[in-house]
Amino acid sequence: MQLQAVSIGSAVPQNNFNATIQSLFVSSLNLRLDNYDKLITILVSDHYDLPQGIRVNQTLPIQPLNIGGAAVSRGGIIRFESSPLAIDLRGAKIWGGKLPRLNGPTEQAWSIIWQTLNAGQIQSKSDLIAEELFQPDHAPHLTRNLSMPVRGLIAAAERFDPHACTDAAKKMIGLGPGVTPTGDDILIGFMAGLYCMLGCKTDRLNFIEEFGKGLFCLSKKTNEISRTYIQHAIKGEFSSSMVGLIEAIRAGDEGRLICATKSTMQIGHSSGMDSITGFLVALAAWNSTSFYTKYKD
């Protein structure tokens, strides 16, 4: 059975490679590249691209595959040990994952995303409700543990202190349930928010670079899948859903923005919602407005 790749992330090797199956899920699998400390993800989606991803739009026949099984890419086709599955990479578009920049105030967009996010988290009974990070007295244990570090991220970014930001991130890395823990997803979204607000400001670029070094070291303390996403975020590489959310902010259309927010929120069990939380936290640090100042005080 041969499937055609629809898109390939720019971090996927363009030449021949050997790999082993690191993990299997209903609609995705991860390959660990031999001789590299990195994963690539093969996923089924009609819209969701990853910088380390190979996207197909047909169901993956997971059943014959086994964790630890070999995979090889030769001549643009990936084949798997003990399985008829093959994935043709030839002709697929390349996804880079670089974010568009935001210029000017984002108060209205921030408000729309914030309200949509919190309503969705409440409806889905998520382990984390974003608003409770700033009102943690009666919040669940996970939220209370994340509240102070998240406030620390904001304060550190406001004064361009990468060491304080790393100290805050240290209390979040690997924290929470899921293949990509809640604390990690917030940090990934936080990096996205910083990058899209970068502009041409040297102080912001210096902060991102220095914080990125600290976060890279911390990423070794979480699991391999989550570490992959964090390390791409450090380089400014993100999913198409995050790019789409920022493009919707730039467009200034409320309906489009709500749709983009809800689409991103649907990723994983709570990863999409948690990453949006981190994204809004970063915007709160570098584009302060009256709406969210009350959450920071």
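(the above was protein one; protein two follows)
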Amino acid sequence: MSLPIAPGHPVPDASLIAKTRPDFPMTGSGTDRTRPAVQAAAPIVILVEPQLAENIGMCARAMANFGLSEMRLVAPRDGWPSGGGLKKGATAAASGATHILENARLFASAAEAVADLNHVLATTARERGQMKRVLTPAEAMPEVAGRVGGGERVGILFGRERIGLTNEEISLADAILTFPVNPAFASLNLAQAVLLNGYEWFKTTGGEPPFRENNPSPPAKREMILSMFDYLESELDLCGFFPPGKKPVMTANLRDILHRLDMTEQEARTLRGVFKSLVEGPKKARLLARQAGEPEQSED
């Protein structure tokens, strides 16, 4: 297939440069432009004859989510960037990951796209009868991380949306990547396949979630918990909650339930306040009703 641009040539787009400035707000809930982007070496994503510009954009977004930055395109159906490839939805679908689209490299064939790589993986959902190792992304990424860490260049081939990779293209790879999916419905969207591989890569290489739980209150001390137990049990005793002879067992069960909450000091204070309101609230309501001359409501 003849293409108007030399294989491996970067495809710049001046209109995108402003949108990749550090001070330009990236769209998407949870994106924090004040934090540095992941820039470590990573596998190269190779999309073979992608059919939809929107899918290319969504793949770029998935890559950016998990620290993958290099995209290679093999003969996109709508051209790149000629034929409206960038204009017909790719940029919008990338949701800010335009730096990946801007630096995408174009190749005429899968063989050319992998020529400079040391190790290649091919994704497929179908058994191809080839004598290759078959790995899930979780199984493959530790080895990939070792190779990348040792200076090798590793690429992952992703096929066409409708028919995937050909057997000839898969023959270019060292191993096959496939996903543990429902065999009755194994087909994945192109961006989903990129996302799952990116997730396993990021997890394998020590990726951390952008935030953890934030609870400034320290764990509750035992004396605070026991005081709450004493208060609750005494009030339950007053209202006749415990049947004769059952109090020791029921008290132990209640304490076990509350212990499993593993409360902080703030949580213990809040829970005790709830118990106190349940006890004293009706008394206060009756007092206010008497003061206002209103009929008191029955508790039944």
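Reviewer note on protein two: The longest strand covers residues 44-48.
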